[in-house]
Write a structure and sequence with these properties.
The complex is a heterodimer of chains A (about 290) and B (about 400). With about 290 residues, chain A is an all-alpha fold. Chain A has one domain: ABC transporter involved in vitamin B12 uptake, BtuC (Orthogonal Bundle). Chain A has 11 helices and 2 strands, in the order H-H-H-H-E-E-H-H-H-H-H-H-H. In chain A, helix 1 runs parallel beside helix 5 (about 135-160), helix 2 crosses helix 8 and helix 2 crosses helix 9. Chain B folds into 2 domains: about 30-150 and about 285-355, Response regulator (Rossmann fold), CATH 3.40.50; about 155-285 and about 375-390, Rossmann fold (3-Layer(aba) Sandwich), CATH 3.40.50. Chain B is about 45% helix and about 20% strand. In chain B, the strands form 5 sheets. Chain B has a 7-stranded mixed beta sheet with strand order 9-8-10-11-12-17-18, sandwiched between helices. In chain B, strands 4-1-5-6-7 form a 5-stranded parallel beta sheet, sandwiched between helices. In chain B, helix 5 crosses helix 6 (about 180-195). The chains are: A mainly alpha (about 290), B alpha/beta (about 400).
């Protein structure tokens, strides 16, 4: 029972982080029809922006996290507005552009900061120990912020005019545009929202693990896995899938070991996709 | 799409230019020796590759300064070409192929077992001499006489370090953690055998390379209740996170890393020496005043601080052996002759000291350089002076 509780806590913690990441990834696909290969890059960039703000500008960590989220939001907006928007209907071109941006971001970070992990720690270091389980306080803080982020995202998409406008554009761009909605502003805003979430997650999570130029690769892979499992473009599906993946990863690794656990996770996803190929909450995929 | 006369003309000019430039490089190669570097220059293990590249650049600069390499009595300039192997077999094979295509006959590197596995067939096919690393159980073999090892693997140094750790920390059981590829399993299994020979119960735990959050693995380790944890060849970035999460989980025992250097980055990622608490690791070279002169030399010749990772010093000694062998053989193309010269050279480095060729018992061929090495120690959160261990011999 103790092992079950400890493993569940790890799964929830992983799931919340994955959900925050995957929400941005699926939002971009759902609204813009773009598979954003630069998503991991914004995560890394968020980490390095927060690190720079703390280390070189002496900012308090909380403010640095906000600055990192803002920085990745602005970069995402500019990238979509001035580069991606020109080729938004060409899947191959958007793929190449986002992949190119990722390579530029990771290479740029490598040149500026070097390949080694810098010293970047979470300001709170305590650990709560219970019967057979432990929870680092930093994980609780990250979990809390992730939950707030996820709920805010839901509120924004489903209960605001902005969210309704985005969903209308995702449903039928031609009709929505004829109704007066402006994709030239709303698309970059949606992209910026997603990249801001990735940056926020990077700024929050990297000091609890480690920060290095390459860490966007597994982030992209995990986001992809979750979004496919949840159903491409489905915000609810991505959230549920993120927690399923987090739990599956935790339980399989604890009870089967690191190697068999990784295999079990992919087998689980494979079986679920065989049963329901469109993903858990699969819906009509936007035709761009 | 139709091909116009203009397109044909432009293509002709491009092909002509390419042929002309390749001809120029072939001519230049006649008077220059190019040392190829195949090493990981990106990703979590990049500091190992940067150490390798820096070392070879230094040795090339030394050779050029001293006019060490002569072909038919004429001085030969030494160049370095480094290619990122991405710490994968396919990346290293691609890098070796690229070097072979450029006519490079000498490779210093690669670093990890998967990379060496990728390089070996290319090197054999192109008669390239390789001074590599890689702690794989099949890193060397009598069938590949042009492959040399820059330093012993865990078969050479694990046991003496474990004896010191056992004496200091009184270990009875250990869990070894490493990535689940050849770069992890070949080292962790040899380390595990060495622990067992020393009377310590050892179990192995592997994780998928690319894992970023080790909390589930740490929970698994805690359930096993070992006296110590050994991170074997886990990359420094991964090792730092594992140490941090182990301490958060309440693990109080010593943590080792019998897989390679990287203490500084591990300490940085984990949160400092206080988090490391009791920590021991293999330090390829004991850095005393004499060895430190290599760093000074690097600054003088290359105008920068030496790469942080201490593998740098070991690569310097290995690359120096190769350039000495090339100088002795008097050829920059006949690698068999250079290999013969290398085997016959006394193993000695002006800064690191004397060593031996070893490897006969473990690999069946005596082509593994063995110099004195060190055991790094952090005790109760304080960094201790590195313990010197004489070069392993006879294995």
């Amino acid at each position: 029972m103790q092992g079950f509780v400890a493993t569940s806590l790890i799964g929830i913690s992983l799931g919340a982080q994955y959900a925050l990441l995957a929400l941005g990834f699926t939002l971009i696909f759902g609204i813009l029809g773009v598979v954003n290969f630069a998503h991991g890059g914004f995560y890394v960039l968020g980490g390095y922006l927060a690190y720079s703000a703390v280390t070189y500008l002496g900012m308090p960590y909380a403010l640095a996290v906000l600055c990192a989220a803002l920085g990745t939001t602005v970069l995402g907006f500019l990238f979509q507005r001035f580069m991606l928007d020109r080729v938004i209907d060409d899947h191959l071109a958007t793929l190449m552009l986002t992949l190119g941006l990722y390579l530029m971001v990771s290479s740029g970070i490598l040149v500026v900061f070097g390949p080694q992990s810098p010293a970047f720690s979470f300001p709170l270091t305590g650990v709560i120990h219970g019967h057979g389980f432990f929870v680092p306080i930093e994980n609780l803080v990250v979990l809390g912020v992730c939950i707030i982020g996820i709920l805010s995202m839901y509120g924004l998409i489903y209960y605001t005019d902005f969210g309704r406008a985005l969903r209308a554009l995702a449903d039928d761009r031609a009709v929505a545009t004829a109704q007066g909605l402006r994709p030239a502003i709303l698309f970059p805003a949606a992209f910026a929202l997603a990249t801001g979430l990735a940056g926020l997650t990077g700024a929050l999570v990297t000091p609890t693990l480690s920060l290095a130029p390459h860490i966007g690769d597994p982030v992209l892979a995990t986001s992809f896995l979750i979004v496919i499992l949840g159903g491409l473009g489905s915000i609810g599906g991505a959230t549920v899938a993120a927690f399923i993946v987090g739990m599956a990863e935790a339980f399989s690794a604890v009870y089967l070991g690191g190697s068999k656990g990784a295999l079990a996770l992919f087998v689980l996803v494979l079986v679920m996709l065989v049963v329901k190929p469109s993903g858990l909450f699969g819906q009509r995929v936007r035709g761009a | 799409m139709s091909t116009t006369r203009r397109d044909l003309l432009l293509s002709g000019i491009a092909v002509g230019a390419a042929l002309a430039s390749s001809n120029v490089s072939v001519m230049a190669a006649g008077q220059e020796l190019t040392l190829g570097v195949v090493g990981v220059l990106s990703g979590p293990a990049a500091q190992w590759g940067l150490a390798l590249r820096g070392a070879v650049e230094l040795v090339a600069a030394e050779a050029n300064r001293d006019g060490l390499i002569k072909v038919d009595g004429a001085p030969c300039k030494v160049n370095v070409v480094a290619i990122d192997s991405k710490y994968t077999a396919e990346g290293a094979a691609a890098a070796a192929n690229t070097l072979a295509g450029q006519g490079v006959k000498f490779i210093i590197g690669p670093i990890g077992s998967p990379e060496l596995t990728g390089v070996k067939p290319i090197a054999k096919r192109n008669s390239m001499l390789v001074m590599g690393n890689g702690y794989a159980k099949d890193a060397l073999s009598p069938q590949l006489p042009l492959i040399f090892h820059m330093g012993p693997g865990p078969s050479g140094w694990a046991e003496p370090i474990i004896k010191i750790a056992k004496q200091k920390f009184g270990l009875k059981s250990v869990v070894l953690v490493a990535p689940n590829d050849q770069g992890g399993t070949d080292i962790a299994s040899v380390d595990a055998d060495a622990y067992k020979r020393t009377g310590i119960t050892a179990t192995e735990e592997y994780y998928q390379r690319g894992t970023t959050n080790f909390a589930p693995i740490v929970t698994r380790i805690m359930n096993a209740k070992p006296d110590a944890v050994d991170l074997a060849s886990s990359p420094p970035g991964d090792a730092g996170i594992i140490v941090k999460q182990l301490r958060q989980a309440g693990f109080e025992g010593p943590i080792g890393r019998l897989g390679g250097p990287g203490y500084s980055e591990i300490s940085r990622v984990a949160g400092g020496d206080e988090v490391l608490k009791d920590f021991y690791w293999y330090e390829p070279v004991l850095i005393d005043e004499k060895v430190q002169l290599i760093a000074d030399e690097y600054k003088k010749l290359l105008g920068a601080e030496r790469p942080e990772n201490n593998l740098f010093f070991q690569w310097v000694s290995a690359a120096r052996m190769v350039t000495k062998a090339i100088a002795k053989a008097g050829t920059i193309s006949d690698t068999a002759k250079v290999a013969e010269a290398l085997r016959s050279l006394p193993v000695e480095d002006p800064n690191i000291g004397p060593g031996h060729w070893i490897g006969q018992d473990f690999f069946g061929i005596n082509q593994e350089l063995s110099f004195p090495f060190g055991v790094g120690l952090v005790e109760k959160g304080k960094l201790q002076p590195t313990i010197r261990v004489e070069a392993a011999g006879g294995k």
